[in-house]
């Protein structure tokens, strides 16, 4: 029994050390099991249609709550964090068109997945026959719930995970393994009485602490929504044309955000050179070149043009009203 415990502790230490060596900013462990506390919250959120047109959120309900349905014999969930906070954010003045910081560089799905696959290969080489899968926001895995369980941070009132050393500008990924490891525990909630994220959200998407109506979020409108953006939110986007960072930007914990160490997340050189006129007149060639490896490709050129036109039209209306 003691020998088994010693091996488990050794494997846990080995994996955490390698995760940091691969460039991850955090690595924590949870025991794989049913997410009891998340089930009613998820069910209620879906019943109230907070997911809007993101139909995929309602799929695979059982798999979202139990990793053992994704990996046979799953015993552990490894959570990793990878910082993406830029050393020099793009201009975000009153007249600047803005994209979320997570989309500055290469698509995080590929960057994280490659690192996670390297970690899985290391585990299999060093420990033996270990079955597992890597997940990066592209399968029914509740990454924030697992991040909480692993001690990565607590869920802020804006529903993002907050880490006391890093803030919230990081990506989350998981390895689900059929290997027993020593689990970490959750940490406390350090939001206190602060409501800056709720107060700052222009569309009122954070309907109450810890609950976001996804169908009212600027990120939803500019990325997930495929049809015309509703007129009732005109003038509320603060010039965000892909995603939105407002609730994170105003969070006091992000005073601890430090520049990332992942060159792949640096902006394409052409991105810094885009003027507002360039954005408004963006061509297929420019879109393909500047965003060829970026998450911005998700909205496609026509979607980006729609978003730009929407915020520009609202801006012009405001100027007319001022005149």
Task: Tell me what the structure shows.
- The protein is of the alpha+beta class and 323 residues long.
- 37% of the residues lie in helices and 12% in strands.
- The chain is built from twelve helices and ten strands.
- The strands form four sheets. The protein has a four-stranded antiparallel beta sheet with strand order 1-2-7-4, with helices on both faces.
- The radius of gyration is 21 Å and the shape is globular.
- The model has no long low-confidence stretch (mean pLDDT 90).
How are the secondary structure elements laid out?
Blueprint: H1 2-21, E1 26-31, H2 38-47, H3 61-65, E2 76-83, E3 98-99, H4 108-127, E4 132-135, H5 143-150, E5 154-155, E6 161-162, E7 170-177, H6 196-200, E8 206-208, E9 211-212, H7 218-224, E10 240-242, H8 246-249, H9 269-273, H10 276-280, H11 284-290, H12 300-322
Parallel strand pairs: 3-10
Antiparallel strand pairs: 1-2, 2-7, 4-7, 5-6, 8-9
